[in-house]
């Protein structure tokens, strides 16, 4: 076992990010690690900050989510030290991704947020659907109330594919 538990947690995060072809959100990484009680939330956030500071992970905030990706430096570090990750942990990660890849990809690719615009007294909803880093849809709408804005964001998460198909059918 490793002398420093933080090093193990860093390697786990790098291993997770290396196993997918899309960015994972901070919440997705946190959910996996905290659900299995590998460490605490505060320790995990420290690990993510240190990985970002060391340029092994990039962190990009898009709308209301922080997206994490492994860098070439992170991948190189993982290649040198991945043998220090317990086989059972690797198996848990690989199994988790096999079972949840579609859901994880969709969560990281479908983004929605809203904010109040003081100048107009309305809310602006920002909806994005991505695939392989490309924006399939990037839509902003003025909405009169916060409740409607929240409902639109919730429905966007549930109905993105349906709406995208409708738009392409109507426009092509």
What is the topological layout?
Blueprint: H1 5-18, E1 24-25, H2 26-35, H3 41-53, E2 57-62, E3 65-70, H4 72-81, H5 87-109, E4 110-117, E5 122-131, E6 134-143, H6 146-171
Antiparallel strand pairs: 1-3, 2-3, 4-5, 5-6
Helix pairs in contact: 1-3, 1-4
How would you describe this protein?
22% of the residues are buried. This protein has 172 residues and is α+β, with helices and mostly antiparallel strands. The chain has helices at 5-18, 26-35, 41-53, 72-81, 87-109, 146-171; strands at 24-25, 57-62, 65-70, 110-117, 122-131, 134-143. The chain has a 3-stranded antiparallel beta sheet. The protein is 56% helix and 24% strand. A hairpin with a 2-residue loop joins strand 5 (122-131) and strand 6. Helix 1 packs across helix 3 (41-53) and helix 1 (5-18) crosses helix 4.
Number of helices: 6
Oligomer: single chain
Please outline the major beta sheet: 3 strands, antiparallel
- Per DSSP E runs of 2 or more residues, the count of β-strands stands at 6
Describe, in short, the structure shown.
The protein is an alpha+beta fold and 172 residues long.
Main traits of this protein?
three-stranded antiparallel β-sheet; 24% strand; alpha+beta; 172 residues
């Amino acid at each position: 076992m490793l002398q420093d538990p933080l090093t193990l947690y860093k390697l786990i995060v790098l291993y997770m990010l290396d196993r997918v072809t899309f960015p994972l959100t901070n919440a997705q990484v946190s959910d996996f690690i905290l659900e299995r009680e590998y460490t605490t939330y505060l320790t995990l956030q420290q690990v993510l900050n240190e990985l970002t500071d060391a340029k092994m992970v990039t962190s990009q905030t898009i709308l209301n989510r922080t997206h994490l990706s492994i860098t070439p430096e992170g991948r190189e570090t993982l290649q040198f030290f991945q043998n220090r990750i317990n086989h059972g942990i690797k198996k848990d990660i690989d199994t988790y991704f096999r079972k949840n890849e579609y859901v994880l990809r969709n969560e990281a690719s479908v983004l929605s947020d809203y904010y109040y615009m003081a100048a107009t007294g309305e809310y602006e909803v920002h909806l994005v659907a991505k695939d392989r880093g490309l924006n399939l849809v990037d839509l902003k709408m003025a909405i009169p109330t916060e409740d409607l804005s929240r409902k639109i964001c919730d429905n966007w998460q549930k109905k993105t594919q349906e709406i995208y198909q409708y738009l392409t059918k109507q426009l092509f």
